[in-house]
Input
Amino acid sequence: MFGRRTNDPGAQRRLPASPSATPPPAAALAPQSAPQPVSAPARHEPVEQQRHHSEEYYDVKTTVFNALIDTIDLTQLAKLDSAAAREEIRDIVSEIIQVKNVVMSIAEQEELLEDICNDVLGYGPLEPLLARDDIADIMVNGAATTFIEVNGKTQKTGVRFADNQQLMNICQRIVSQVGRRVDESSPICDARLPDGSRVNVIAPPLSIDGPCLTIRKFKKDRLTLEQLMRFGAITPQAKTILEIIGRVRCNVLISGGTGSGKTTLLNCLTGTIDHDERIITCEDSAELQLQQPHVVRLETRPPNLEGEGEITMRDLVKNCLRMRPERIIVGEVRGPEAFDLLQAMNTGHDGSMGTLHSNSPREALSRLESMIMMGGFTLPIKTIREMIVGSIDVVIQAARLRDGSRKVTHITEITGMEGDIITLQNLLVYEITGEDANGKLIGHHRSTGIARPAFWERAQYYKEDSRLAAALAAAELLDGNGNPIGEKHG
Ligand SMILES: Nc1ncnc2c1ncn2[C@@H]1O[C@H](COP(=O)(O)OP(=O)(O)OP(=O)(O)O)[C@@H](O)[C@H]1O
Ligand SMILES: [Mg+2]
Output
């Protein structure tokens, strides 16, 4: 054991200055005054209902924690791997409990150990939430309030931080891992956890009630079109149509609101890309998990504290045109890079894809127009629209419905222009028909009866035409519940 086991007041001076490599100072790690779930709950009930510890438990925890911090050499601890560090803490804490004559059940002692290890080594009260695979988002609104999203529903948890300082230190620890800093002078920061989860921090004075930390948990099990079908987000026919859209190199825009499943859908769609293609991805925070062997992943960079060194999405998209891409995938189009993406799609990089925040396929196109106009391109609106028509083949709309389920609500193609207006044609739409007793929405995906989509020739070229025709025909034959009925058309 390496713990110094002394009461030397100089111990604190040896604490690491940078939270990136080592745990933050003891004061920042004061134990939480609120209950901490220790392991992932078996059921998805609101965490609020989980066991609460007694005040006595927290008093003991504070005592043991302070004794631990006085005893242990944190710089040495930081050199160990996490399993060895946990073992070390476990030994010292057991010793402290004995020396201080603390009466605790074995189970309580285990929980205490787990809590303390999380505080010293990990992300404190966040650890149990990070360990759960069923959580999509973790939203910390200041030290006292944490929400999570499970199964499409947002729920409040009992997770609390000791104070805003502890929360801020954890935020700092997270962002420093990707070489960034968050404090009053630079209060907004995007980062990534080592497991790939996407993180945003906004700190006071911008967030009024304490630091806000939002984590989009990285899904270890990459969702596939097959799974989306099993979840009811798409029908088997829609799955086939999406597979064909990807395979025949349609240029695709995936549109949807926040957390509607755009990135997931994009990820699934990239699964249809051949393994011999050179794919370049451009993202603000790398989330995509492409499975092909020839992928180059690019990520934007925010400006440094002096306001220099920013690399924008536009820079990345422009640069990737010089990298001989066969497909360009843009995680999220939000600004003038829309222009470069459209140009790329128009000039031989067909099969490119991107996502965009918007509530309908029609709105997605006007958002594209605005992005191009706001980017300072002085093009007549008709030219921009012609460019959109010449570039994008299909818009796929994703939505999170009010019952928490996520659906593909439209597969829509861009067919041309009538005067100044872009014409759209829905191939498949999701219709809500009712609601069951549990508040779950009832609906079905319905084909609009189009037998020959505008990308029919492409489908023929790739020998996917008969599969496409069959899927479109089968999609028409749905009963009121969206289940296929009868035999296929002859
Ligand atoms: N069809 C689906 N069924 C169940 N869960 C889904 C489905 N699609 C996405 N999810 C889950 O929903 C969460 C949000 O998905 P995703 O990150 O794809 O959304 P997004 O629209 O890209 O969000 P943002 O706007 O924040 O970028 C993820 O946890 C993802 O696993
Ligand atoms: Mg996304």
Remarks:
- The chain has 15 helices and 15 strands.
- Residues 256 and 262 are 6 Å apart (CA to CA).
